[in-house]
Amino acid sequence: MTTIPTSATPRLLPEELLALAGDHERTELERYRDLAFRFLAFSSAASRLMAALGIECEMRLSGLLRAARRLGLEEPRAGGAIQPAAPAVTAPGLISSLAMARGALSKAMTDAAASQRLYVRLGELGAGCSLGHEFVAIARQKQAELAILREHCLESGAWQLERRRA
Fold first, then answer.
1. What does the pLDDT read at residue 9?
2. pTM to 2 decimal places
């Protein structure tokens, strides 16, 4: 669904859009790094998947930095666009049960869906500048990320069967 900009639609500067995207992507990166660590003892496959999704976040951050430079925004404002990721608050404990794994994967899917919606909206807001297509491309990547997480959840249904047999 595309939103038609109106006079009530907030007008954000390109550097503000980049700041929002950069802050969000750094949060996503830390979340996936944390999940990769938390899944280590329970499922190496899930841990590797979360690490790979974190690497995708790093690549998007690099792309946002290139976009900022292309627009002549190499020096982001304080608290603004693309800066090194700060450590996030660590989620509690390693995943040690099927229930914890399901909860973490469910939350990861919810967060990925929200992230995809954010980038769709940033694409709409950035349509007036050269950033719109950047955000639309990221929204597509986020949609693929969500599909990968859903597929992993379907495949991880085998965890339950394997654990019952053991």
1. 60
2. 0.80
Q: What is the largest CA-CA distance in the chain?
A: 62
CA distances from 5 to 80, 122, 133 (A): 24, 12, 16
Check: CB of residue 28 under 8 Å from CB of residue 35: no
Q: Are 116 and 139 in contact (CB under 8 A)?
A: yes
Q: What is the per-residue pLDDT across 14-36, written as a single tens digit (0 to 9) for each?
A: 999 999 999 999 999 999 999 99
d(CA 47, CA 112): 16
pLDDT digits (tens, 9 = 90+) for 145-155: 999 999 988 87
Residue 138: closest CA among 28, 11, 4, 13: 28
Beta-carbon count within 10 A of 78 CB? 5
Find out whether 53 and 145 touch, Cβ atoms under 8 Å: yes
First to last CA, the chain: 47
